[in-house]
Amino acid sequence: MSCSTDVRLFDLGLFPRCSIRCGDIRKGVQLATNSPSKLLKKECAEILEGMKQYNEAAVLFEKGALYDRAAQMYIKLKNWNKVAELLPQVQSLKIHSQYAKAREAEGKYKEALAAYETAREYDSMVRILLDHLNNPQQAVAVVQESKSVEGARLVAKFFMKMGDFASAIQFLVMSKCIEEAFNLAQKHGKMDTFADIIGNDGRPEDYRSMALHYENSMNYFLAGKFHHMSGDSTKAIKLLLKGGPGVLAKQVIDFLLGEQDGVPKDPKYLFRLYMARKMYRESAKTAVIIAKEEQKVGSYRNAHDMLLGMYQELRKHKIRVPNELASNMMMLHSYILARIHVKRNEHLMAARLLIRVANNISKFPAHTVPILTSTVIECQRSGLKKSSFQFAATLMKPEYRDQVDAKYRKKIEAVVRKPAKTEEEEFPAACPFCDNMIAETELNCDKCKHTLPYCIASGRHVVKDDLTECPFCNFPAIRSELAKFVESDDPCPMCNKGPIGAGELRIFPDAAVFLPLMGEE
Length: 521
Description:
The protein is elongated and about 125 Å long. Among the domains are: 3-91, Alpha Horseshoe (Serine Threonine Protein Phosphatase 5, Tetratricopeptide repeat), CATH 1.25.40; 345-417, no CATH class; 428-518, 2-Layer Sandwich (Herpes Virus-1), CATH 3.30.40. It has helices at 3-11, 14-21, 25-34, 38-50, 54-63, 67-76, 80-86, 93-105, 109-119, 122-131, 136-146, 149-162, 165-174, 178-187, 191-198, 204-216, 220-230, 233-242, 247-257, 267-276, 280-296, 300-316, 323-343, 347-358, 368-382, 385-395, 398-401, 406-417, 479-487, and strands at 428-430, 437-439, 467-469, 476-478. With 521 residues, the protein is mostly helical.
């Protein structure tokens, strides 16, 4: 072979590789080492690795800046000093872990700890700190920072051996060993500690176990609290009340109001508690809160029925109906009644009721646009052009316009473009207390200043010469209007009970009997 051919072979990197393969390892390594090519060093090192010449392979890998591969070779050679030298430049977590295990096997625990930390093997760090370095404080810090479940279990076992059961419970919970933590708490009288650690992050079964523990210990307040947190609010209230009146009742109310933990509970539970304790005024206030929440999400019938039930309780116990409850009830009934009259083709009556609702549209946030749309349509049908224009103009405001149903948008736009701003005034009817003539759907008399009882069938104020009541819910009605429901075998529009017999509509000579319904004495 000519000299020029040798040069070309050397330039191509063939000569170092050929030397190694032909058994002249020393010469091949020297040539590869002297070459500026990292690729050549890598290829030659891989050939040497295949030949199990790990030391020479390690040297070339290192020269080629392939530190992970070099460290792997030194591990096979158990050249730990060389591995330690390369570790700062090694990226592989597996290699750090292998080095840590080797150091641990040799009793070099501090070096093993550092390597395990680099390898992110937190469980092994905790084990080394507890079993070999007697450093529980650092082990706890590692667990708290890493959130290692196995590490927490190891720390818990350490504290159990030390007799520190509160700390053991804490780390058992952290390690998801909830049943073991519960049993330990029960055995050593640390249930309060267990409850504090679980806090609001427990499972229903955890709270149920705590509730049963406290129930057996006759601590009815905590038993009730944890039954509530488990989802069994009926049993919770029974237990909370079991301790009797006085201080415990105050604790229960504080708990439901959120005074204990800063978390107000569902007001329905507070309502039931007030009712059970016959605290009807407080029940009424709570009923208004519940109804407002139902109304806010569009559950109008639920809100209506809640207030109706409260009305009946207050009347039964001869307690004045709060104005707010009466007002909210009237507005909800007006909306429900309007929908009934649309179905009965009583469009003028429906329109008048919808005008009342639309003027208080903020109380119906879940259905603002549909209610305003219905108001425009029913007013148009009934010839109430001025009112129709007023609410159509509201719907064309930027905040509502895009929400209007496409099938009504053009009609509503036409009402706004070509407004008819006149309409007949509402028929007057006599106030049932002072005979002052006021509009039929007006519920406040400007002369005698009474809030007027409204007819549950029409929504108008009642009149004294045609006054009756529903025999089921005892709410007032204009007799001739409620009779229409009787004739069609429809139930009472207020309580939804019926049908009502024609002979059951008794005449009332005095409207004052219904004043408590309106929030007046």
